[in-house]
Amino acid sequence: MLHTLFGRALGYDCIFFVEYFALDFIMEGNECRGIMAYNMADGTLHRMKANATVIATGGYGRAY
Predict the structure, then answer these.
(1) Is the dihedral of CA 32, 59, 5, 7 positive or negative?
(2) What are the C-alpha distances in Å from 30 to residues 25, 26, 33?
(3) Among 6, 11, 38, 64, which residue's CB has the most CB atoms within a 10 Å radius?
(4) DSSP code per residue over the chain
(5) Digits of tens for pLDDT over the chain (64 positions)?
């Protein structure tokens, strides 16, 4: 199921950040505007702005 979901998401031009670890949310009032993330591959920090934020903490059956 995981490979099917991943393949279908790529068909919609989704971007995946596989080797990134979210450190903190960037909040504006009560709205999340992005995250601060650590790239585990090269050790760099990144600020990622977003219009929407999805928190996926587990497999497909546990996506919130």
Answers:
(1) positive
(2) 11, 10, 10
(3) 38
(4) -HHHHHHHHHHTT----TTEEEEEEEEETTEEEEEEEEETTT--EEEEE-S----B-SSGGGB-
(5) 678 888 888 888 887 888 898 899 999 999 999 999 999 999 999 999 988 887 776 666 655 5
Judge contact between 2 and 60, C-beta under 8 A: yes
CB 26 within 8 A of CB 34: yes
